[in-house]
Design goal:
By secondary structure, the protein is of the alpha+beta class. The protein has ten helices and 14 strands. It has helices at residues 2-7, 42-56, 74-91, 102-110, 142-149, 153-162, 165-251, 258-271, 371-387, 403-414, and strands at 25-29, 61-65, 94-97, 117-122, 127-134, 295-298, 303-311, 314-319, 322-327, 331-335, 363-365, 392-396, 418-423, 433-438. β8 and β9 form a beta hairpin. InterPro entries: DNA_mismatch_repair_MutS_C, MSSS, MutS, MutS2, P-loop_NTPase, Smr_dom, Smr_dom_sf.
């Protein structure tokens, strides 16, 4: 019926993906066409239809045969049915045949291109389940149905004894296949449930992963925005600091005092975002005991130094060649001074020597110093000499490679207290000394 509907262009009640063939003809031998008037028995009626079908069918035909070989001796009927099926199969036609003969079930089991199928039947309720089981031959269930309907057990047991060994073997084979099918069906249902559970879990994990990825992207975007804001702020602070340094250079004739440079550097360091690894102690944290001689970290300058002396809430800290007063809350103890010789103050990072009394010396000995340290000391020395009213001073830098001499003379050329300068003459130290005349 479905094939006829499909060939007529009608919709068919089937699942998506189902396939149907287009046949040139559909032949059927169904029902009991026995006729007393025409002297036709059941077997004769079936055989007459089958002969007509065999003459008209082609390899593109569909042949439907109901209870093939019925109505005559079972042995002869089953043999004739097998021969008819074999002939139709060789012709290439599609065929569906129903039967209760065990011989036909065994034939389909062993013949390539032919397969058994059955409609599932519930023996407990004596009703069909309307499930097609491909690959499993059906059982007649005559004994089970007779027992359920109330036939005496003695008669049923006697009937079982009359069944031939071959028929019993076929029935046992069908029962085994049925049992295996039920087991496979149960395992399939279990596997299907596990598959659905795994798919649900996979979908949940995928949704969670997508959610985490979205949160991660939001956090990254937030971090990028904050970083851009911090960098923009640092740039604005740096530009302001550079502008202030330029103003100082113009106001003081390119001679900017060291304490002003330190202050500018402190502002620049504060403009930089504070690293996550170093944090100020909490306000309610237990204060550290800091003593003179201890090595400390100055938070605001991000530099290490040594404590020279303590005065209330402040400490005098030696930072290289500089000394600064810093709040104790701005310090972190790095290393405590050894217990031995606590009265000895830490030495400066660079040692500069004077040749005479520090209070009013006309000479500054810079031999062994680097250029940066030497320029800082020359600037301080010129200020002190100018305030002392000296007209001429001697700066000893040695001959060496000439880098120290050239740097000092370039610095003197722009200094506001220097009127002129020259190299030392014979008896004054020659090229190892620069003589500067002050204003």
């Amino acid at each position: 019926m479905l094939s006829i509907m499909a060939m007529s262009g009608l919709f068919v009640p089937a699942e998506d993906g189902s396939q149907l063939c287009v046949f040139d003809a559909i032949y059927a031998d169904i029902g009991d066409e026995q006729s007393i008037e025409q002297n036709l028995s059941t077997f004769s009626s079936h055989l007459t239809n089958i002969i007509r079908i065999l003459k008209a069918m082609t390899p593109k035909s569909l042949v439907l045969l109901d209870e093939l070989g019925a109505g005559t001796d079972p042995a002869e009927g089953s043999a004739l049915a097998i021969a008819i099926l074999e002939h139709i199969h060789r012709q290439g036609s599609r065929i569906v045949a129903t039967t209760h003969y065990s011989e036909l079930k065994a034939y389909a089991y062993n013949r390539k291109g032919i397969i058994n199928a059955s409609m599932e039947f519930d023996v407990q309720t004596l009703s069909p389940t309307y499930r097609l089981l491909v690959g499993v031959p059906g059982r007649s269930n005559a004994f089970a149905i007779a027992e359920r309907l109330g036939l005496p057990r003695s008669i049923i047991e006697h009937a079982r004894g009359e069944v031939s060994d071959e028929d019993q073997l076929v029935n046992n084979m069908i029962a085994s296949l049925e049992e295996n099918r039920l087991g496979a069906e149960a395992e399939r249902q279990t596997a299907e449930a596990l598959r659905r559970e795994n798919e649900a879990l996979r979908a949940s994990l995928e949704a969670e992963r997508a959610k985490l990825e979205e949160q991660r992207e939001k956090l990254l975007q937030k971090a990028r925005d904050e970083a851009r804001q911090l960098v923009a702020k640092a740039k604005r602070e740096a530009e302001q600091i550079i502008s202030d340094l330029r103003k100082l250079a113009l106001e003081e004739g390119a001679s900017v005092k060291e304490h002003k440079l330190i202050e500018a550097k402190r502002r620049l360091d504060q403009a930089e975002p504070e690293p996550a690894g170093r944090k100020r102690p909490a306000p309610n944290a237990k204060p550290q005991r800091i003593e003179p001689g201890d090595e400390v970290m100055v938070y605001s300058l991000n530099q290490r130094g040594h404590v020279v002396e303590l005065s209330g809430e402040e400490a005098l800290v030696q930072l290289g060649i500089l000394k600064m007063k810093v709040q104790l809350s701005d310090l972190e103890l790095v290393k405590r001074q050894a217990a031995v010789n606590k009265t000895q103050q830490p030495t400066a990072a660079a040692s500069l020597k004077r040749t005479r009394d520090d209070r009013a010396s006309m000479e500054l000995d810079l031999r062994g110093s680097n250029l940066e340290e030497a320029l800082l000391e020359v600037d301080r020395f010129l200020d002190e000499s100018f305030l002392a009213g000296m007209g001429q001073v001697y700066i000893i830098h040695g001959k060496g490679t000439g880098i120290l001499r050239s740097g000092i003379q370039e610095f003197l050329r722009k200094h506001k207290h220097v009127k002129s300068f020259r190299l030392g003459q014979y008896g004054e130290g020659g090229a190892g000394v620069t003589v500067a005349e002050l204003k």
